[in-house]
Amino acid sequence: MRILQLHSDFIEYKPIKKEIALAEESEQKTQRLEDIIVLFVAVEEGDDERVAKSAMQEIKTNLDKLKAKRVLIYPYAHLSSNLAKPSEALKVVKALEKYSKDSKLETYRTPFGWNKQFTIAIKGHPLAEQSRTFHPKTEAVEAKPEEEKVSEAIKAEEKLKSTWYVLEPNGKLVPVDEFNFSKDETLRKFAHYEISKVRAVQQMPPHVTLMKRLEIADYEPASDPGNFRWYPKGRLIKSLLEQYVTEETIKYGAMEVETPIMYDFNHPSLADYLNRFPARQYVLKSEEKELFLRFAACFGQFLIMHDAQFSYRQLPLKIYELTRYSFRREKSGELAGFRRLRAFTMPDVHAFCADLPQAKKELITRFRLCMRVLDGIGFDKDDYVLGVRFTKDFYTENKDFILSLVKLHDKPVLVEMWEKQFFYFIFKYEPNFVDNQDKASALSTDQLDVENAKRYEITYTDAEGNKKLPLILHCSPSGAIERVVYALLEKAYKNQRAGKPPMLPLWLAPTQVRIIPLSDKFEEAAEKLAEQIETSHVRVDVDDRSLTMQKKVREAETEWVNYVIVIGQKEIDSGILPARDRKSGKIMPMKLDELVETIRQETANKPFKPLSLSKLLSSRPQFHG
Questions:
Q1: Is the bond preceding residue 325 a cis peptide, omega within 30 degrees?
Q2: Measured between alpha carbons, how far is residue 230 from residues 122, 211, 518, 520, 589 in Å?
Q3: What is the DSSP string of 30-66?
Q4: How far apart are alpha carbons 490 and 138 in whole angstroms?
Q5: What are 391-401's pLDDT values in tens digits?
Q6: Domains in the chain, ordered, with CATH?
Q7: Taking the CA atoms of the chain, what radius of gyration do you get in angstroms?
Q8: Of 206, 248, 324, 523, which has the fewest Cβ atoms less than 10 A away?
């Protein structure tokens, strides 16, 4: 059973249409309930009254902490793809209602089997949104055919109990419910999102509309949900990001490799690791082998290092791969454009360290790398908040190290502290972007792994000639490339709402300069000018379509073109180009070499690729209707 628990100021709902034959009788009128806990409930195959009873016992305990006594049970099939039969589900929903009333809660329930329209307002405290999963007895689960393979880490994560704090740069560790968030609204939203563990999406994120309108990418209906088609402009943006992150990681000192995308599910090291990593896998069969698609570059790199010979003199030793693609079979209700998807491009760099002092030093180096990469992409520190997670023992023994990292960030950070170790790592940090729907997504990460060297039998030779197990650091300097595009588009939308022009960083803009001839007779001059600009590694195109000049300018603005130049006889004679700068909104008269130099300075130290579309807009297809 899956339950999404929302502490709400109010909910209004109206039954619209019966969806199944077993639908209960109900009036089709709007109901409104105020100051109420709404339980969106999906009953799964194998659930029974015992699951309902244990679920309500835990919910009641939680409601006592919230001092809440009113409950609305709302059957909601969209939380699961493994639903029970309607007749069984109705029994469990009624049982849940009974146990709620037995618990002295003021209980309401929406009719079962109806399509319903609802409006809800959720309270603002960190525990207002919570997601829970309740499992039936083991014997009931084992009776299911073709049971989904779910790692033990996923199960542990669902039951994971943490203590949440805010750690300030001055070293003060404040329980999250006592911290004053008035000066950092983004951190408050991040804390709310992380603690509630609600990942389901209720409406389309703004970046999805933008990625389609800008012809960056779109869903691929012929593939599995969460897989995308990338149009030429999007492929350019993605390729530039891939190249930039790879170049920065190699500058850091990592050796680039390439590894397979599928592995044997029953390989001893891999099978054990799968149960320590909180991700759902794609599984396939070939030649009597059960294989899974990789969800990171870890195992490929670990298997390489298992066969490698290296000594303490070469540590920390760094190895890197840009995985195109990694696969995680995220739950369908959580898929949300580029924020959460099932196939993604992940820069993955591991460092093998001799001991904890060396690992902590390297973690600081890599934190600087992550901040440098994010800054180079186009994010400043105000664009993200930091989450840090660790075991209680690690914090007790390494307070100075953790605080040094927080001081580098120079802002309060959200802390999740585990009573004991649940996963293969005991420490990790994640800069997170909080989007326009108050959902958070990690832009980069690093983890301190204390298990996998032993699991994969990776050893180095110490000064005395003995074999030792290294500590392993797992870092993605930018996080998934697709998620970077998501954050850039969401940031642009935020800027638009704040009255600023939405735009991509100049080095990533598909068209950096657009030339618009004042009339047909200036098209040849526009094309010659474009050729001159193109030789300076600037992406330029010409709008030669049969449209009015005003419409061409408006379309250039909706495409977020950074510099728009309208040319006629005056510009040809004078050599002065009236460049409309998107960032400032001003027209900046300048000579050709001045324009090129302005662009060169703003895109310095960034990779360049030409636009693969035709230079003439009249020759381009339209990819999105």
A1: yes
A2: 36, 10, 33, 33, 36
A3: -EEEEEEEEEEEE-BTT--HHHHHHHHHHHHHHHHHH
A4: 43
A5: 999 999 999 99
A6: 2-147 (3.50.80.10), 178-490 (3.30.930.10), 506-619 (3.40.50.800)
A7: 27
A8: 324
Compute the distance between CA of residue 181 and CA of residue 191 in angstroms, rounded to an integer.
10
The average pLDDT across 385-410 equals 96
**Biggest CA pair distance of the chain:** 87
CA distances from 448 to 298, 364, 425, 476 (A): 13, 12, 5, 13
Q: For residue 351, what are the contacts with CB-CB under 8 A and spacing of at least 6?
A: 316, 317, 318, 359, 362, 366, 472, 473, 475
Q: Are 329 and 82 in contact (CB under 8 A)?
A: no
pLDDT band, residue 266 (cuts 50/70/90): confident
- The amino acid at residue 362 is E
Closest CA relative to residue 563, chosen from 608, 491, 506, 479: 506
Residue carrying structure tokens 């392993």:
472
Query: Which residues, including other chains, have CB under 8 Å from residue 259's CB and lie 6 or more apart?
Result: 294, 297, 299, 300, 301, 303, 304, 321
Exposure class string for 95-126: b at 16+ Cβ within 10 A, else e:
bbbebbeebebebbbbbbbbebebebebeeeb
Q: Is the pTM for the entire model greater than 0.70?
A: yes
Q: Under DSSP, is residue 186 helix (H, G, I), strand (E, B) or coil?
A: helix
DSSP states along 508-565: G-S-SEEEEESSGGGHHHHHHHHHHHHTTS--EEE--SSS-HHHHHHHHHHTT-SEEE
